[in-house]
Design goal:
By secondary structure, the chain is mainly alpha-helical. It has a single domain (23-208), classed as Four Helix Bundle (Hemerythrin (Met), subunit A), CATH 1.20.120. The chain contains seven helices and no strands. α2 (25-45) packs antiparallel against α5, α4 (99-140) runs parallel beside α6 (177-191) and α5 runs antiparallel to α6 (177-191). The longest helix is centred in the middle third of the chain and has 42 residues, at 99-140. The protein is elongated, with a radius of gyration of 20 Å. The protein starts with 8 loop residues before the first helix and ends with a helix. The model has no long low-confidence stretch (mean pLDDT 95).
Length: 209
């Protein structure tokens, strides 16, 4: 079977629009984050070598390395979301005829729900990083492509907010309150200031247009 990352955009969108539960919102969140990182990389490529930006060459090269690494990580998360959702569905299909089967089924569901929480939480963290990288692209990148840095921050922010919803929905069904408390606290820390930061970066871009 073809890997999700190897499918065409058209096929991905067709599957997204279909009755199939995967790919879904989690994969789209990771995709938006990956697109943000890719746009930051594009800004870097179109800035390097330009005489007007020779003084920021090292910063842009570093930024390119970071954005490409992040793009690779977020691309993998597209499939990770699909895989963990399928694992949840497999757990719900486990037999529940006897009391023992019901206990085992419930235990397995709880285990995978925790995993399903960690995947979007990781995506949130990556999207926070993508927002920060887009800020550098907006500050230091070529004015010719500064609008793309603006699109990068919006894409990262959309990915972040989308992945946040998946953290919320999965923790809602987890019985381990210590786990949910810890992960929601971690999420709050990651989200802190992202609304304001995104708006500031967008305004930086607007002023340069």
């Amino acid at each position: 079977m073809m890997e999700i990352k190897d499918k065409s955009i058209e096929l991905f969108l067709e599957e997204l629009a279909s009755k199939s539960a995967t790919p879904g919102g989690g994969s789209v969140a990771a995709m938006m984050g990956a697109q943000s990182a890719a746009l930051t990389s594009m800004v870097c490529h179109l800035t390097l070598g330009k005489p007007a930006y020779v003084t920021v060459k090292e910063e842009i090269q570093m930024l390119l390395s970071q954005s490409e690494q992040l793009r690779a990580e977020l691309t993998l998360m597209i499939k990770e979301d699909i895989d963990v959702f399928n694992k949840i569905m497999d757990c719900y299909r486990l037999p529940k005829t006897t009391a023992e089967e019901k206990i085992e089924r419930s235990a397995q569901i709880q285990i995978v729900l925790k995993e399903a929480t960690l995947v979007p939480l990781k995506c949130v963290k990556a999207c926070v990083e993508a927002i920060e990288l887009s800020r550098i692209a907006a500050d230091k990148g070529s004015l010719a492509v500064v609008s793309d840095a603006g699109v990068a921050v919006i894409a990262a922010y959309a990915g972040l907010k989308s992945a946040t919803l998946n953290v919320y929905i999965n923790t809602k069904n987890i019985k381990d309150t210590q786990f949910t408390t810890e992960k929601l606290a971690e999420l709050d820390v990651l989200l802190k200031g992202t609304d304001e930061t995104t708006q500031k970066i967008y305004q930086i871009v607007e002023k340069k247009l």
